[in-house]
Amino acid sequence: MSHGTTSWLQPEEHPLLYIRQVLVQAPGTTNQHIIDVKYSGTKTGPLTTVSQGAIISVLDAGGDVYAYNNVNGTQALVVTRGGASGRKFITTVSDNHETNNLLDLPRFG
Question: What is the DSSP letter of 75?
Fold first, then answer.
């Protein structure tokens, strides 16, 4: 179930997105628990809520998405991965290893 207000984003409308907050389902301990995100077109712009699926669609269409933490200024490229069930999810990767940049973002909901 998604709480997002927008279900689809076009990469050409948002050539660079910054995810700045996440909504996770319990227990919220892995990137696979992310269900919605709040993003902006700049590091400080107004936030829009969308489903994880909308971000996956942007990434699959070649869009650029970053996790950006306003508290500490860290930024990481967001990519898609396939889970054990085959369901895609979003994550950040550094040196070919999944990182917790998304889970370190502020939570909403």
Answer: E
